[in-house]
Amino acid sequence: MTSYNADNAPAPVGLYPHARRVGDLLFLSGIGPRSADGKSIPGLELDASGNFVTFDFEAQCHSVFRNVKAVLKASDALWEDLVDVTVFLTNMKRDFQTYNRVYAEYFKDHQPCRTTVEISSLPTPIAIEVKCIAFVGSRV
Question: Would you tell me which CATH number, out of the four given (3.30.1330.40, 3.40.50.1000, 3.40.50.720, 3.40.50.620), belongs to the domain 2-135?
Answer without folding.
Answer: 3.30.1330.40
